[in-house]
Write a structure and sequence with these properties.
single chain; about 400 residues; mainly alpha; two-stranded antiparallel ribbon; 18 helices; 2 strands
């Protein structure tokens, strides 16, 4: 019965994952905000059942131990702070879901054919998003429409919901495509052009830092690396000034965002100083769960009203590390980094680090870069990269 069922279960699960990945870049425009969580919860039992039909991928045991340790740390933190069990469970799931997507993809989609087919489809999705973004940029420039600009370029997002999200998505495929091909082509230029339209410091940091690793093999990469590095240098002094300024009363989110990060970081570190070892508990500070469950930490130390209103609107601290420390403490933060290292190790051992296919290993480093200026769970980027990385780790070059 298992053999007959597995014959149909594998292609159905793979098709569902691919449909999800195509949908995620446009999720906030279309709706269905919990689509990835629903699919993950539905598909995990299937992956656990079908796991016996596959050999372990390289590094799977170390990965599983690290995930179990992080889950245990979340549970201990919740119990130590008397957090309701259901909130602890939701908070733990929020930290683990990216890694669960990685494992599930390795089990269900870990073969060469599916990986390359999925990458090809998603590359087209990224180019479609890039083309629409550039089209919007041209229309705005010609029409002289009002909008947010940075160095004369409109910050636009095309079919996606926010310039930062769009920029991170297309720069991920720009870097992967650059690592996979020996010569530049129009698609690469299209992706980088759209990334420029994001006006995002996170995007240009990824292009500069990760693009530099490709310079020895892709000499032409000096052009986008130099452009992005120049953009970062030009905005650095402005960023320092913005972080020192108080937000204007009644201003838009773009006006208070830089100083909000400093304010939120200080609040998170204040929480952490009261719970240094195990944190205040998962789902207790800085994220969607804490806001929706009326965490008592906000009542104990109230925020300034304008800052808290902005926090409620973006539903994060606009950075990840302070929230991680506040909720899980030093122990949980170290274990989270251990799981991340185990994930990278699994992709490296699959052959992506030593063969010509370095693209997936390189792209994963976008995640810690964007966590400097965003929350972790940016689904269109995080889930896409983790599923592709899991599928890549699921088969070996050897």
């Amino acid at each position: 019965m298992l053999n007959a069922g597995a014959r149909y279960a594998f292609p159905v699960a793979r098709a569902a994952l691919l449909v999800l990945l195509v949908f995620l870049p446009f999720q906030r425009r279309i709706g269905l905000p919990w689509a990835e969580e629903i699919l993950l919860v539905a598909a995990l039992p299937l992956a656990a059942i079908l796991r016996r039909r596959r050999t372990a991928f390289a590094g799977e045991r170390a990965f599983a131990v690290a995930v179990a340790a992080l889950g245990s740390a979340c549970l201990v933190s919740g119990l130590a702070n008397e957090v309701p069990l259901w909130i602890t469970a939701l908070g733990t799931f929020d930290y683990l879901k990216a890694f669960l997507f990685f494992w599930m993809a390795a089990v269900l989609c870990g073969d060469r054919v599916w990986f390359h087919r999925a990458y090809g489809v998603l590359r087209l999705v990224a180019m479609l998003a890039a083309a629409c973004t550039l089209g919007e940029e041209v229309v705005r420039l010609v029409a002289g429409a009002p909008g947010m600009r940075r160095f004369g370029v409109y910050r636009v997002s095309g079919l996606m919901s926010h310039p930062n999200e769009m920029g991170l998505y297309v720069i991920a495929f720009f870097l992967m495509e650059t690592a996979r091909t020996t010569r530049p082509h129009a698609g690469i230029a299209l992706l980088y052009g759209a990334a420029l339209c994001s006006g995002s410091r996170m995007v240009h940091a990824a292009a500069t830092v990760l693009g530099a690793f490709l310079l020895c093999r892709r000499r032409w990469m000096w052009i986008p690396v130099l452009v992005s590095a120049t953009f970062l240098a030009a905005t650095f002094s402005f960023t320092l000034q913005e972080q020192q300024q108080e937000p204007q009363k009644g201003g838009a989110g773009a006006q208070i965002k830089p100083s909000f990060r400093a304010y939120a970081r200080a609040r998170a570190l204040a929480v952490w100083r009261d719970h240094r070892a195990v944190g205040a508990g998962p789902g207790r500070f800085g994220g969607v769960i804490a806001l929706r469950t009326d965490s008592p930490l906000y009542e104990r130390d109230p925020w300034e009203p304008r800052r808290f209103a902005f926090h409620q609107r973006i539903r994060s601290l606009d950075q990840f590390a302070p929230r991680l420390l506040a909720e899980l403490g030093v122990i949980g933060a170290l274990l989270f980094m251990l799981v991340a290292a185990a994930t990278l190790r699994a992709v490296w051992l699959s052959g992506a680090g030593v063969s010509n296919d370095r693209a997936m290993f390189l792209a994963l480093w976008i995640i810690p870069i964007y966590c400097l200026g965003s929350g972790l769970n940016l689904a269109s980027v995080l889930v896409t990269l983790m599923v592709l990385a899991g599928a890549r780790a699921g088969y070996s070059d050897s």
